[in-house]
Amino acid sequence: MARFIEVAQQDRRGLVLVFMVSLGLRRGEACGLRWANVDLEQRQCRIVENLVTLEGKPHVSTPKSVNGRRTVPLSQDAVALLRAWQAAQAEERVMMGEDWQDTGYVFTTHKGTYLYPDNLNRTLNCLCEQAGLRRIRVHDLRHTYASLMLRHQVPLEIVNRQSGHSNPSFTLNAYRRISESEPK
CA 4, 45, 63 angle in degrees (round to 5)? Predict the structure, then answer.
């Protein structure tokens, strides 16, 4: 993961993936995150929307469960990433001038439009190749987050809440075998 993050941080399109793996977000949650739902001072973001693909077209929806609608604490690294992203986005806004589209999304194209969720797969494949890693699915970043948190003995309830799972037993059932197979 360290090698992937090192490569992804050097790529404009890879920053959303670094953000996702650092918080355990689903791709639709990251693509649907708006600046209005981010509080850098309080170090948190509210997950209230998803940008999902239905029949090949993007649609805004709400998270699939009550627990999916949540407030997620931001680490210092996540805040630093968002501050740097915000500055880069401001520069892009100036460069694009009238062509900039102010959608309010955090992660956007260089023109300010939303990131098409399916494009994250291509970005991830390219970054994995650059890092010399096997290809993985975007959702595997979420699994990686949960597995690493449990491996570092973050309490199950916190990993569950951060992931937006319906209950801790789901999180435990999904990731127990991964953490149990780790050498002690």
Answer: 90
**In the numeric block, which tokens belong to residue 158?**
């916190």
- Divide the 184 residues of the chain into consecutive groups of 10 and give the mean pLDDT of each group: 93 94 93 97 96 89 87 95 96 96 96 92 95 92 86 82 74 61 50
Question: Residue 34 in contact with residue 173, Cβ under 8 Å?
Answer: no
Query: Taking the CA of residue 168 as centre, how many other CA atoms within 13 Å lie in the half-sphere pointing to its CB?
Result: 7
CATH of domain 2-180: 1.10.443.10
This prediction's pTM: 0.87
Distance of CA 31 to the CA centre of its chain: 8
Q: Which residue type, as a one-letter code, is found at position 184?
A: K
What is the spatial distance between Cα 88 and Cα 93, in angstroms, rounded to a whole number? 9
Q: Which residue has the tokens 């992804």?
A: 8
b/e map 140-161, b = 16+ CB within 10 Å: ebbbbbbbbbbeeeeebeebbb
Contact status, residue 138 vs residue 27, Cβ threshold 8 Å: yes
Tokens at 166, concatenated: 């319906």
Cα→Cα distances 91→30, 40, 96, Å: 21, 19, 9
Residue 164 backbone class (left: φ over 0; alpha: ψ -120 to 50; beta: rest): left
pLDDT at 177: 52
| Distance of alpha carbon 54 from alpha carbon 89, whole angstroms | 27
